[in-house]
Amino acid sequence: MDDPLSRPPQTMKIVTAHTADLDAATLREARALFYDVFEGDLDDHDWDHSLGGVHALVWEGPELVAHGSLVQRRLLHGGRALRVGYVEAVGVRADLRRNGYGAAVMTALERVVRGAYDMGALSSTEEAIGFYAARGWRLWLGRTWALTPDGPVRTEEDDGGVYVLPVTVSPDLSGDLTCDWRDGDLW
């Protein structure tokens, strides 16, 4: 039986490319889509977090309708610094949701996670939890932390919102998980 989560509409074009290989116009379109999807509830750091990795862009004709990116981060768990593909800036144009575009983005990004990282990770909005869980992403049940310039700091507000996709590791989902430092939202 076909998995509806991985069956994209037939007219879409999916492109994966590193930030360095995208022209300025495409990056502007992706940023505009990202801000539209989240209705402006973002700052410059949110977009900046999506740069420097692999982007998955979904086009319908000349229109960009979905986007997501995968950037490398180091997460600490169980005494190890894990090489993690961290999902950022996933969004689908509001009028086209639930048509396979988000699944197409995630299928492309998950392929990269499985081929290059110890595990994938992401911080989910409430609305997207079911989407990620249905794709095999697992809720991190333990405490979250950030390794800041002042040392480890708890990130309680992110507990219950971090999901992982283990590849080469079998993490203790009830253990502590620490992200590397960055400006803006840490997770």
Helicity range = 10-25%
Structural class: alpha+beta
Q: Count of helical segments?
A: 4
Residue runs with pLDDT of under 50 for 5 or more positions = 1-7
Radius of gyration (Å): 16 Å
Description:
The protein is an alpha+beta fold and 187 residues long. The chain has helices spanning 24-37, 44-48, 101-116, 129-134; strands spanning 12-18, 54-60, 63-77, 80-92, 119-123, 138-139, 144-148, 151-154, 162-166, 177-179. Strands 1, 2, 3, 4, 5, 6, 7, 8, 9 and 10 form a ten-stranded mixed sheet that branches. The longest helix is centred in the middle third of the chain and has 16 residues, at 101-116. 33% of the residues are buried.
List keywords for this structure.
alpha+beta; GNAT_dom; 4 helices; disordered N terminus
Topology:
Elements: E1 12-18, H1 24-37, H2 44-48, E2 54-60, E3 63-77, E4 80-92, H3 101-116, E5 119-123, H4 129-134, E6 138-139, E7 144-148, E8 151-154, E9 162-166, E10 177-179
Parallel strand pairs: 4-5, 7-10
Antiparallel strand pairs: 1-2, 2-3, 3-4, 3-10, 5-9, 6-9, 7-8
GO molecular function: acyltransferase activity, transferring groups other than amino-acyl groups
InterPro entries: Acyl_CoA_acyltransferase, GNAT_dom
Organism: Planotetraspora phitsanulokensis
